[in-house]
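This follows on from our talk about sequence and fold. Please put the record directly below this note.
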Amino acid sequence: MKLDILAFGAHPDDVELGCSGTIAKEISLGKKVGIIDLTRGELGTRGSAEIRDREAQEAAKILGVSVRENLGFRDGFFVNDEFHQLEIIKMIRKYQPEIILCNAIEDRHIDHGKGSKLVSDACFLSGLIKIETQLEGVIQKAWRPKVVYHYIQWKNIEPDFAVDITGFIDTKMESVLAYGTQFYDPNSKEPVTPITSKNFLDSIKYRAQDLGRLIGVEYAEGFTVERYLAVNSLGDLI
């Protein structure tokens, strides 16, 4: 299955928090989108890997993505080496996306920056014909996505561009709340973490609203780029 967009997250819920409004919008425009989670989030303070698996699949249904896979890397301990690069290359060659979305280049959680660089490096290597990979016994063709964009997470990194997600904020919030064990629940008896506060849950919406304000729309999501953006004409900008 060829995808238009493939979004990677170090943990289940990274994609939902960072760029699910954009994903929902692109799907509404007829694009095929997939999600690849690098880990199962097994080191998360609340819940378990098995629960996160179910939550991730529920979020995928809400967003309407074509496919969601989990590579099962070690949460907290995966590294940017040949083994991990090759596993990601297999996914890139399998789905042949034009656009890759991945973690913030720098963030509070160490897996976010690591995952960002790992996916970015794999995107380049995936285009080299002398790197051979096989999937289900079939040799894969080299494939390099046209662009790699990094969504914004915990830190307020200044975006290089913003996507208008007006009309899709409710879908974004619904997909985030599919992770019932991870976010604000006044009745939970589990330990408090930085992402379980009501302030954090509220921030998902007000940050999107504030970025929307800055570009003249109701809600937006921001991204950083690895190379200059190009447009056909000034009229392409909103």
